[in-house]
Structures are given as structure tokens and as C-alpha cells.
TrEMBL record:
<dbReference type="GO" id="GO:0004333">
    <property type="term" value="F:fumarate hydratase activity"/>
</dbReference>
<dbReference type="GO" id="GO:0051539">
    <property type="term" value="F:4 iron, 4 sulfur cluster binding"/>
</dbReference>
<dbReference type="InterPro" id="IPR051208">
    <property type="entry name" value="Class-I_Fumarase/Tartrate_DH"/>
</dbReference>
<keyword id="KW-0004">4Fe-4S</keyword>
<comment type="similarity">
    <text>Belongs to the class-I fumarase family.</text>
</comment>
<dbReference type="InterPro" id="IPR004646">
    <property type="entry name" value="Fe-S_hydro-lyase_TtdA-typ_cat"/>
</dbReference>
<keyword id="KW-0456">Lyase</keyword>
<keyword id="KW-0411">Iron-sulfur</keyword>
<dbReference type="GO" id="GO:0046872">
    <property type="term" value="F:metal ion binding"/>
</dbReference>
<keyword id="KW-0408">Iron</keyword>
<dbReference type="Pfam" id="PF05681">
    <property type="entry name" value="Fumerase"/>
</dbReference>
<keyword id="KW-0479">Metal-binding</keyword>
<feature type="domain" description="Fe-S hydro-lyase tartrate dehydratase alpha-type catalytic">
    <location>
        <begin position="15"/>
        <end position="275"/>
    </location>
</feature>
<protein>
    <submittedName>
        <fullName>Fumarate hydratase</fullName>
        <ecNumber>4.2.1.2</ecNumber>
    </submittedName>
</protein>
Length: 278
């Protein structure tokens, strides 16, 4: 059994926060591909500015967006790990505390009622699952709330079927309009309970942008939803054109015989994330 300490995990989590300064290569490539096919002049200009902003942020070590988000961590804990020195959640929060200070990122977390800021962007949202390994894997999403506020949950009846799911995706993106800073990435969770569908929708943002689902039925639904969303004509930053969304990613989980939960979680064009194996 391998030992991993509180300090090691805290430092790894702090290092993850550097993602707030950098747009992943796959996201840059998706924006460049969108620029190449965009024929709307205003939308094309906006795409140029998004790409220039990404280059400047990385070069100068600045936040890609002023909203450096609420820290969301998906933690995969190896069953061959002996974690010492405290709780995993406390180590993650210590890492967030250090990382947001270290990289000059905004503290955006506060009490929902008093609206008093915690001052260090804690607590993080931490999801933990296990696997057969001797590692701890961290997947970090700094989730900005221009997009997070556009989350939608639909509790459909089973008769709604696949067409009903596609209708929900289109409805959510139409309702969001330009608010989540398109072009967006749309995460969709189907099944489970209400909270499982929402978690599954957000987890889709860990996928590489545009990588199709290995499930042929879901991959076909992703293509259909992307076509329908882009046909809305909202476009980059709401200027119109062909690129309302860069991708639609869909995951599913078994659900109850009387239910068809569908959650839609939108990610903005600043699709920041990091992946670290300890």
C-alpha cells in the first residue's frame, strides 16, 4: 500500500489552480476551427479576440477570465492508497486556498445568505470515487458562474424519449442565449436521480472537446444536438453566425422505471481544466 500525505495532496491541488491562466490546447484548436468556418464578421472578430486573450493570459501569467470560478474537483482515490494527515476534502481546500492566492485568482465564494465572502475561494466542491490503483487522480474544473447559472434540470416522463432529450438541450441553450459567453460546450447528463444527472452533466466537461461518446447511440445524439444548437444562430458572444457551441457531450446512468432526468450544464469558451495523477 502506498502512502500519500495531506501536504502532497494539498500542493497538487494548489498546482491545479494554474489552469485558471491557461486555455487547454484542445480548446484553442476548437476555437481556431470555429474561426476557420465562421462567415459572420462580428463573430469572427470576437473569436480572434478570444484567441488573442488566451495567448496574452498564458504569456503574462494572468487569469484567462476575471471569473476564476468555484473550484470543482473530481477525485479518484486508489484503493491501494493510505492517505495520512487529515481528510481528503481538507487537503483539497488547503490547496485551493494556496493556489488561488499563488496565481492571483479572484476569491468568489461566499455564504449564500449573508453574502459574506470566505476570502480564499473555499470551500471547493469535491466529488470522490474509488478505483483499483495506488494513485490519487485530480480533475479540476474552475467553474465560472456566467455559465453555471445557465444549468437546467428537466424531469421528463419516459415517453419523452430521445427526441425529448434533444428538445431539452436545445431549450437550455436557447434560454441561455449569450449569457454563458458562447461558443459554449454543452454537458448533458441523462438518468440517475436529479443530483446524479446534474453531476454527470458537469463531469462531461472533463472530456476532450469534440471527442465523441464511445456509445454509438449517444454519439449520434451528440451530433444531432450540436446541429440543433448551432442552428439557433446565437453565435459567438451573441453576435450570430455558425458557432453557438463547440461540442455537446452526453453521459448516461441507469434510472428509475418512471423517470427520465435530463440535466444540461453549460461551459463557457474559457474551458479551463487540469488533470493530475499523484
Amino acid at each position: 500500500m502506498r502512502e500519500i500525505t495531506f501536504e502532497t495532496l494539498a500542493e497538487a491541488a494548489a498546482d491545479c489552480v494554474k489552469a485558471c491562466l491557461c486555455l487547454p490546447e484542445r480548446a484553442k484548436a476548437a476555437l481556431k476551427a470555429a474561426r476557420a468556418r465562421e462567415d459572420n464578421e462580428a463573430a469572427a472578430f470576437a473569436l480572434d479576440m478570444l484567441l488573442e486573450n488566451a495567448e496574452t493570459a498564458e504569456r503574462e501569467g494572468l487569469a484567462l477570465c476575471q471569473d476564476t470560478g468555484m473550484a470543482v474537483f473530481f477525485v479518484t482515490l486508489g484503493l491501494g492508497v493510505r492517505f495520512t494527515g487529515g481528510r481528503i476534502e481538507d487537503a483539497i481546500n488547503e490547496g485551493v486556498r494556496r493556489g488561488y492566492r499563488r496565481y492571483g485568482c479572484r476569491a468568489s465564494v461566499l455564504d449564500p445568505l449573508t453574502r459574506v465572502n470566505t476570502g480564499d475561494n473555499t470551500p471547493a466542491i469535491v466529488h470522490i470515487e474509488t478505483e483499483e490503483s495506488e494513485n490519487i487522480t485530480l480533475d479540476f474544473l474552475p467553474k465560472g458562474f456566467g455559465s453555471e447559472n445557465m444549468t437546467r434540470l428537466y424531469m421528463l416522463t419516459p415517453s419523452a424519449g430521445i427526441r425529448g432529450i434533444a428538445d431539452c438541450v436545445e431549450d437550455a441553450v436557447r434560454a441561455a442565449g449569450s449569457k454563458p459567453c458562447p461558443p459554449v460546450i454543452v454537458g448533458v447528463g441523462i438518468g440517475g436521480t436529479s443530483e446524479k444527472a446534474a453531476e454527470l452533466a458537469k463531469r462531461q466537461h472533463l472530456r476532450e472537446i469534440g471527442a465523441p461518446s464511445p456509445d454509438p447511440e449517444l454519439a449520434a445524439l451528440e451530433r444531432e444536438c450540436l446541429e440543433r444548437v448551432n442552428a439557433l444562430g446565437i453565435g459567438v458572444q451573441g453576435f450570430g453566425g455558425q458557432n453557438t457551441a463547440l461540442a455537446v457531450h452526453i453521459g448516461k446512468y441507469p434510472t428509475h422505471i418512471t423517470a427520465l432526468p435530463v440535466a444540461v450544464n453549460i461551459q463557457c469558451n474559457a474551458a479551463r481544466k487540469s488533470h493530475k495523477v499523484i
